Amino acid sequence: MSTLLGYDLDQLRDLGALDTSREIAQQPGVWREIGRLEGAETDAFLKPLLERPDLRIILTGAGTSAYVGEVLAPSLRRRLGRRVEAVATTDIVADPLACFAEDVPTLLVSFARSGDSPESLTAPELASQVLTDCWHLVVTCNAQGELARQHADRSSSAVVLLPAAANDRGFAMTSSFTGMVLAGLLTLGGRDDELVDRLAAAAEQVLATRPTAAADLAARGYDRIVYLGSGALHGLARESALKVLELTAGGAVALSESALAFRHGPKSVLNDATLVVSYESNDPYTSQYDRDMVAELLRVIPARNLVTVTAHSGRSDAWALPGVEDVDDAALALPAVICAQLIGLHFSLALGCTPDNPFPGGEVNRVVQGAIMHPLQHPNRR
Which CATH superfamily is domain 194-350 in? Predict the structure, then answer.
């Protein structure tokens, strides 16, 4: 009988977890497919924009799609040597005049799984309304989504469509998250076939070796999880915490913070029922702070309550990411987040939830509903 992540397929179907499990497991293959996407047309669109020294790049999305931008922004700032900011669509829609206070040439990069949520559609329109010079790059998993359709034929827009498999059927974004991170990295930071292969190989190792460990953690009865990460991995920590909240329908409370900021109050969350997952940066300078926090945590919580996810050798019980010790943190986030996805899946199952749809009553929806978009009474500056 076929198995997936330690379960047989019929069992996963009965548990309401088959789609989510498949979408976690398929990610190495999806990444390799993204690496083979033709990018010449998009590169031609971006080339004159990236040659402009005054160009501001804003990475936007809502929820998990916003965390795509938070993971990418630090890496792209380094690679491009320019302003790259992550600003959620929910912030843009709520206060566009603050988000676009500077009327400078802007490339708005919109990340969206479905491309049908109200904020995904409204944020680009507000940017074009408020800014004199604005271009759009849409990275989406849904060719039939309204966002992709609206920008498909605009001269000021380019659309990057991910493989259909990246458009997750499950409630929580898994392969859609990593797919959009990878597509953003390759499109804006430079294409790299070798990198894609290395990331996929590291992810395959995690998928082969960590499901049982994730199930063991879930069986211990933790009711709180803290994810720690610095720089680009802070965005990863935020996404990891959201996965636990979503997949357990709030049954496990999750918090995210940077290593340095955790001492300033959030550390109060620690108790005997708290699991801490620390992502170690690949940057030699930044990783010093991550390791300092791990050493501090080991003085106040049992070692079994701490998981370190790292590409470097260290603690014997760390969750290792092999073969990616020299990639930047935005790339490192791809195999690293699979650890969080496995933890979220197994915590969900341990609590009796149905991961494919943790909210069968419709309290929270796969595509956000109910948000009313109010018109902005502000003329375009042109």
Answer: Glucose-6-phosphate isomerase like protein; domain 1 (3.40.50.10490)
